[in-house]
Every structure is written in C-alpha cells, then in structure tokens.
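Final report, section 2: Outcomes. Of the targets proposed, Aspartate aminotransferase family protein is the one most frequently requested by collaborating groups, and we therefore present its record in full.
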Amino acid sequence: MTPQTDPRAGAAVKAADRAHVFHSWSAQDLIDPLAVAGAEGSYFWDYEGKRYLDLTSGLVYTNIGYQHPKVVAAIQEQAARLTTFAPAFAVESRSEAARLIAERTPGDLDKIFFTNGGADAVEHAIRMARLHTGRPKVLSAYRSYHGGTQQAVNLTGDPRRWPSDSGSAGVVRFWAPYLYRSRFYAETEEQECARALEHLETTIAFEGPATIAAIILETVPGTAGIMVPPPGYLAGVREICDKYGIVFVLDEVMAGFGRTGEWFAADLFGVVPDLMTFAKGVNSGYVPLGGVAISGAIAETFGKRAYPGGLTYSGHPLACAAAVATINVMAEEGVVENARNLGASVVEPGLRELAERHPSVGEVRGVGMFWALELVKNRETREPLVPYNASGEANAPMAAFAAAAKQAGVWPFVNMNRTHFVPPLNTGEAELKEGLAALDAALTAADAHTEG
Ligand code: PLP
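The predicted structure is given below as tokens.
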C-alpha cells in the first residue's frame, strides 16, 4: 500500500468538510475530523502519511477490512452489468444474497427483507412483530443501541440518544444482564441470569403480556459495552416469549457476520429468534445494506396479506453484489474461524495480561473479535474513569487515553469509560499484537488518572 502524502489536499478536504458536512451525534463546532486519504486491510492513513491500525473496524462494520480486492471487483462488475433495479423484480445479486444469508441464519429464518442499514431493519422488525401479534408494546433493554431513526432511537437504552422532542410510545425498557455493575444484586453469572429473567417476567406481568408484541435485544450488546449475556439468559428470554406469545427479536447488526467467532452470535447460545436484524458486516459496509431475517410463522402472516412497508433501495443490486462477494470471501478465507481462533489465542490473553498490569482496567469482557475494556478510577469501588456522559475537562482521562493510542499508531474505539477492541475479523496475529502493544502505551496514560 502506498499512503498518499499530500497535506494540502488533506487541508482542502478538511475545509470543505468543516464548511458543509453536518456530522452525526456531534456538536458541530466542537469536532475535528481526521481527513482520511486511503485505507487497505486493517489500516487507514491520513494526508500526512500517518498510518493507523483500525481497532474500530469503522463503526464495527469493516469485518473483512478495507478494499478487499474480490469485493471491490464484484461491485465494479455489478455496476457495469446492472447498477440498480427496483425491489419488486427478481434480480440475481439480490436473490443470491438472500439465499446465502438464509443459509447461515439459525433455525427457520429463511426469508430476508432488505433495508439500507441497521436502524431501518429494526423499524421493520418491530412493524412486523406488531402486525403479526396485533399488540402495541415493545420491550427493549437499557444499555442498548438499536439505531438513530425515530423508533430505533426510542428502543435504544441510552438516554444520551433520546430526542427531547419525542416520546417513546409503546416502548418499555428493562435491565438486561451486566454483572460488573449489578453486583449489589448478584455476585455470580447464575445469580445475574436469574435476576434478569425474574425482572423481565415481572415487567411483563405489570405491563400485561397480551399488550406486548416483541422483546428486542442485541444478542451481545455492542455499543453499550459488549456485555456477553450469561449462559441461559437468552434461552430464558426465548422461553418467556413462547409462554406469552411475544415475538423475540435479536438485533445482530453489530454482533452478526462473524464478530463473535460464529456467523451469528445467536449460534453461541443455541437460540433461535423469530426475527433477526443484520447490517454492517453483511457486506463489510462497502455499500449500505441491512435487513431482517424472518421466521416461517411470521412470513406466513404476510403470505396472503400485504406487508405494509418498503424502501426504494430495498435489496439494491450493488449492495447485494457486495454482500455475495463478502460472504463468499468470509467462507473461502476462514474469516469467522480467524475471529474465533485469534480472539481466543491472542486477543483475550493479551487483554487480560494488560489488565493485570494496568490499574485503570476494571474489567475485560468479550468473545471472538468483540472485546471491551471498562476503565475505572478505582478497581475496588469500580468508579468509572470518567463520569457518565462526560465532556471537556471531565473527559480528560479518556481523551488522554485516545491521544496516546493514536500516537502509538492505532485508532481506538472510545465510548464513555470504555475502549472496545474490535478490529477487522481477518486481522492477522502480528497486527493484533501491534494493536495490543499500542494499547499498553495508551493504558499507561489512563493509569495516571486512577487512584491506584
Ligand atoms: N443495531 C445495532 C445493534 C447497532 O449496533 C447499530 C449501529 O451501530 C444499529 C442497530 C443501527 O445501524 P445503522 O447505523 O446501520 O442504522
């Protein structure tokens, strides 16, 4: 790879960005986006020629890294042959993508409704669940992320995201497992699982089971902190859903397509939902694509009755060609196995070793290539390294961590008092070790802000 080094071009890109691009989730005057000149594999570089190992996979979506030549070629071929065609027609790349996805989804999730990304997949899954059951309410977990559109953001269990001008009609939130911060109620995973299931069933009893259309959960909550649920939790939720005729929706937008070392995180737990949302890794985000995988029973609801929903770009041929190529690359190159094997043999021991040496690391948790370090001021009290929703001076410890990581050549994922280790799934052993070494330096900067 040949990093382009033209600082003047970078300055022009940056100036136009600052003048005209309105960025997501940001105070526009307070941000300073890096101008990116190019990317390849697990790396990207700026116009000064500085190269970063991407520990974020973008927003946890470039599961096969940047610019994979086979996927780039497939997009080019599809663009030359049939760039676009409306969703009501059968198109080769669309039907082949649906077939490849349905082959990999668990159970009888065999019909695929395509969307443009994750949030609209969630919107449609909830619409399907409400129409299928004829019930209004949806239960979703605090400490979750389901997307930035109206319904999806209300389902998201993070008050920082809730728009102040809208309510959350029909959404009831509950507490899913999070042992590290549930310790006043539970000391073991078994106790935490029992606590969370009992709480969920009590919530359902008070809301009235016959009013609840769906329970939506991220199989492994991602943005909120990569809390791998304890054994038995998701199976328990499945049982509760069956007991009350509630549709079980698993959101695999982040956890799906190999992130956890399985094609879908549901496979880790042997659980089959009624609806499963996906996006991101389905085509490594090369062209926007998402969707809902639908069970036989729910598909049947819309067998003779029209499904009242659709999108102009549903199953866009270019995006689907990228999905077909990505899934084939993942299968041919053993990308899922790489995430599982190197996750277990390199990433987990590497992160645990860092935790032993750095007092700022409160907990290491994760699976596959899906890891979080929760940073704390004090390991005994578990006080977070920065307060909830900190900015400015209050966020200085995490800012120091991020600056040191970048200095050491990695781009870190930072959210509140956490950093996530979520590189592309085909990152090699030497690159992973390079990432761990850079984190070592960055954690030293975080340690300076602890009490230990
Ligand atoms: N659901 C989950 C679990 C996610 O992690 C995300 C995005 O991070 C979404 C939904 C929303 O996806 P999108 O940003 O493609 O709309």
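The chain is about 40% helix and 15% strand.
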